[in-house]
Amino acid sequence: MKTVVFDGKKFAQQREEELRAKISQFDKPPVLVSIYFREDPASVVYTNLKQKAAGRVGIDFRAENVSVRDDIDVLLKNIRNFSQNRHVHGLMIQKPSQAVFEQLTSQEWASAGTLRTLAKNLTYFFSREGAEKGSAEWWKRLVMEIAPHKDVDCLHPVNLGRIYRGKWRILPATVRAILSIIEYADVNLSGKKVVVVGRSEIVGKPLAHVLAQRGALVSLCASTGVVAKSRGKQLFAVRSHQSLASALTDAEVVVSASGKPRLITGERLKQGVVVVDVGSPEGDIDFDTVKRKASFITPVPGGVGPVTVVSLLENLLLLL
Prior knowledge:
By secondary structure, the chain is of the alpha/beta class. It contains 14 helices and eleven strands. The radius of gyration is 20 Å and the shape is globular.
């Protein structure tokens, strides 16, 4: 069996050409504002990639450089101003990695307005659990200021809720990218056993819901095992003792976005499986062993990443 290794760069270039043709017919280029945090190297890299791609297709891309140390009230005001600006058509915030927050000192947390409003116990906040809860609440407050009709990466709870109800207009860029890759692989999702590894709010969960809505038999998994399954065209949480390894054994399509390098090896998979690796900067799958089993596989880098960038730009046009 010959394995198809997906060329994400080539696929994204084709999509960019189609997008550029549409935008060339506009009187003025649409404006996309991307807010990113300078302390997070991955956010800086991703923002640069988006800016270059936007330039190629004719989008007016404006990168706003901020800091996690900025007062939260100032950040909220800036996001609110962009949301209310009628000349801005799309707005997104690049979420910094958890490691960025864990490096902050207590004084820096306080100046950012986080401890002042959320924490009573400094020692708790600087445990790993405390930092994660504090940063999650901080992020939620920022996202809530994005106007849903300008939410180009589908971060706002209103837009995520529409996905869960099957009434979405746009999808998170990575989810849109994954679905387009599965379509390119010529997979008929109806009745297919699909395992989604990773349950984040912007990739794993919404992806699992959309796959279920399209008739797939979905198992949503954490690295420890199955946490939700589809029934009909809906996804339901389960108290399952089924391990990830067991779920993978029967999977016809595997999408992994766990962030755990080489979590999935070929020994766990059946012959002919379609595998989409969303891991970054390292892949979630052990490429060499999985390739021996897969009929279709995405590499890291050069797979999902380039398609995610162009999918974000396509979302902007859907909001116009």
